[in-house]
Amino acid sequence: MASSNKKLVPEAKSALDKFKMEAASEVGVTMNDGYNGDLTSRQAGSIGGQMVKKMVEKYENDLKNNK
């Protein structure tokens, strides 16, 4: 199965970049605007994990509030 980094909603790029920077800050990883290829796998995984955690929390809160 091939994967792609193609954005499903290209207009959301700036919001996703901001979200990624916020998640990086929360886990103590310094990111730069632009190239961040010098991050370790652990740092990148921490950022991605924090993003998923926040998305799940938001979804759960939305479910709870819509009852």
Q: Could you explain how this protein is built, in words?
A:
With 67 residues, the protein is mostly helical. Helices cover 58% and strands 0% of the residues. It contains 2 helices and no strands. The chain is globular and about 45 Å long. The model has no long low-confidence stretch (mean pLDDT 92).
- What characterizes the major β-sheet? none
**Record field, number of beta strands:** 0
- Summed over residues and divided by their number, the pLDDT gives a mean of 92
The amount of helix comes to 55-70%
Task: Return the string of H and E elements.
Answer: HH
Low-confidence runs: none
Judged by helices, strands and strand pairing, the structural class is: mainly alpha
Which outline best applies?
Answer: globular
How many angstroms separate the termini? Answer: 38 Å
Share in β-strands:
under 5%
Number of alpha- plus pi-helical segments:
2
Q: Rounded to an integer, what's the Rg over CA atoms?
A: 14 Å
